[in-house]
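Supplementary Text 2. Reproducibility record for the structural model of the 160-residue chain.

All settings were left at their defaults, and a single model was retained for analysis rather than an ensemble. We include the record here because the model underlies the residue-level annotations in Supplementary Table 4.
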Amino acid sequence: MKNFIFASILFALLLTVNAAPFQKLNKRALNFGPCYPDVDSLDINVRPDPPESEKLASFYVSGNLTKNDIIDGITILLIQYADFLGNPIPDASYYRHFTDSFKAGTPFYISESDLLIPELPDSYQLLVKVGDDADNSVLFACAFVIVGGRSEISKVFDFL
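Retained model, structure tokens:
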């Protein structure tokens, strides 16, 4: 009888552990990397990490630009999502003008809180960049990460 009770408890425990969602237990922190070798990189902190579809997230961005000044009202922070191949996800970009100016060589910090994350595919790219709103081709700094896919198969996307 004792063996039967022990086996039943062990079986119930095994079923419970096996039913736990593996995805939730296997989360990895995002490791942002530079977009291009000749562009300054950014330090990105995201909460929750990684962002979850259709939930709120906060982004904390800092860095130290070596070539360009951040100008109040002109320089923007852009947060963009793209599919695994680098095609931008429609209606999935956020931008904000800086409200302070920073000279090149001066550390800066900006945050964006309570952003509603769009519905995301299983594998996607996340790009955070700082650039000039007046001239969309001027990129000051950027960082990107691939979430849920193999990072060696990446296409750095260029838009804005």
